[in-house]
Specification:
With 459 residues, this protein is of the alpha+beta class. Helices cover 61% and strands 10% of the residues. It folds into two domains: 2-69 and 421-458, no CATH class; 76-409, no CATH class. It is built from ten helices and eight strands. The radius of gyration is 38 Å and the shape is rod-shaped.
């Protein structure tokens, strides 16, 4: 009877082991489309439970552990590339929006408006006594000033939009950090009680992947199953505790911006990568630099035109009048002088006061081809063209970097999926294999039960 009891125990252990293996396989199949899910594997091994029968050869099979198929090294590589991809992708999108603001080349672009402005002076030089040419020049000049205003307004609106996105990213970072801290505690509790916490670890890894695209992070695995998470040089999460981020308002260029700071001491968050880095880089560096170049173009244009115009005479003989308002030298406020707007005859075309003289109009029209920008090295049009070329080059470069990092991310994700991804074909093979083993174990138990009934009937 002792031999039969041992065989019965082997069958029972086999039923329990293969039932757990079947459960694991079913769990994999059920989560085949779950984002971040890692395939789980029931590792079977010979049971080492002591036998009551000294002659017993073995005691059956048992599930040694249910392991999560995951490679921490691949995860670390993926998150490092995700940080770079997040930065270049966000930067590429922002530069694309900047290109849309400038609308070059197009009829409503600043380059075309500048050409129309210079052509207006040529038309006036051809017929300096014609009031129609003067009114046409005013309309073209106003279109030019409105285009300057539109560009700066568009850049400021984009800057405010980026600032709003920075604030959103900070909230997202805090939310993810809180969830990771809660999962840390859940994993500690589950594994401390001897249970598997594979699904909790999957959720935590998925959050880490999301966070790595926003900012640079460093994950430190603890022996107890929790993680410590460093971000921007400081500890963001440690077990169930988080060090949150907040926003500090600062004034820059006449607008209020939100600066990410550490909540505990309001020290600046030194973001080294990710989409948050790109948003702050575009908001705080790129856009102000483009605005500054537009302002330099505006100031030199106003100064150069006024310098010549103020020395000329209008149709009514008045002199010393500026064409542009000399007090408004920025791209966001450039405007025609009030006297010019109210009376087109005050536009100076003559240098000696005679109505038919066009020397002032010709001199202003000639400014188009004179090197007045960058210490007298390039023309107004070339200066603006170089700005557009710079934006285009930055955009193309960022797009190329985003594409390159996307390829690396795709390769790493394929390698990760080859390990952690669920294959329906493989799971169906395991399902059949474990089902057959379970049926065989059930048959062992059934046969032993029949034999024992026969033996007991003989007593």
């Amino acid at each position: 009877m002792s031999d039969l009891s041992g065989i019965f125990e082997i069958g029972k252990r086999a039923l329990l082991a293969y039932r757990q293996a079947l459960n694991t396989t079913a769990h994999n199949i059920a989560n085949i489309n779950t984002p971040g899910f890692s395939r789980q594997q029931a590792v079977l091994g010979a049971s080492l439970s002591p036998s009551s029968d000294a002659g017993q050869v073995g005691t059956g099979v048992e599930v040694l552990l249910v392991r999560r198929l995951r490679d921490e090294f691949l995860d670390a590589q993926y998150r490092a590339e995700s940080k770079d991809l997040g930065r270049w992708k966000s930067l590429s999108q922002t530069l694309g929006q900047i290109e849309e603001i400038f609308l070059e080349p197009s009829e409503s672009g600043l380059r075309n408006r500048l050409d129309e402005f210079w052509n207006g002076w040529h038309d006036l030089a051809n017929d300096p006594e014609n009031l129609g040419s003067r009114h046409s020049l005013i309309r073209r000049a106003e279109s030019l000033t409105h285009t300057f205003h539109r560009l700066v307004d568009g850049l400021k609106e984009l800057r405010l939009s980026l600032d709003s996105q920075v604030a959103h990213k900070v909230k997202e970072i805090n939310s993810i950090a809180k969830q990771i801290a809660e999962l840390n505690l859940g994993i500690l509790t589950a594994e401390g009680n001897g249970n598997e916490a594979s699904d909790l670890r999957d959720r935590r890894d998925l959050l880490l992947d999301r966070l790595s695209a926003i900012m640079d992070i460093k994950v430190i695995q603890e022996e107890n199953g929790s993680i410590s998470l460093r971000a921007a040089g400081k500890v963001l999460v440690e077990k169930g505790n988080i060090r949150g981020l907040s926003l500090k308002s600062i004034s820059d260029g006449g607008i209020t911006l939100s600066m990410p700071v550490w909540e505990e001491d309001e020290s600046t968050v030194r973001v080294g990568g990710g989409s948050l880095k790109a948003l702050m880089e575009a908001r705080d560096d790129l856009i102000p630099a483009y605005e500054a170049k537009l302002n330099r173009l505006t100031e030199e244009l106003v100064t150069s035109v006024n310098e010549i115009h103020s020395k000329g005479f209008g149709l009514d003989g008045t002199a010393g009048i500026h064409f542009f308002d000399p007090a408004k030298l920025r791209a966001d406020n450039i405007a025609l002088d009030g006297e010019i707007i109210s009376d087109a005859s005050k536009i100076a075309a003559s240098s000696d006061g005679s109505p038919g003289d066009n020397s002032v109009a010709m001199a202003i029209a000639a400014l188009k081809n004179l090197p007045r920008m960058e210490d007298g090295t390039i023309t107004f049009n070339h200066y603006y063209s170089s700005l557009i070329a710079e934006i285009g080059a930055e955009s193309k470069g960022a797009s190329g970097e985003a594409t390159a990092h996307q390829l690396l991310i795709d390769q790493l994700e394929n390698r990760r999926e080859s390990l952690k991804g669920v294959s329906l074909d493989e799971e169906m093979i395991d399902l059949i294999k474990f089902q057959r083993a379970y049926q065989a174990a059930a048959r062992i138990v059934s046969r032993v039960d029949e034999i024992m009934d026969v033996i007991l009937g003989m007593v």
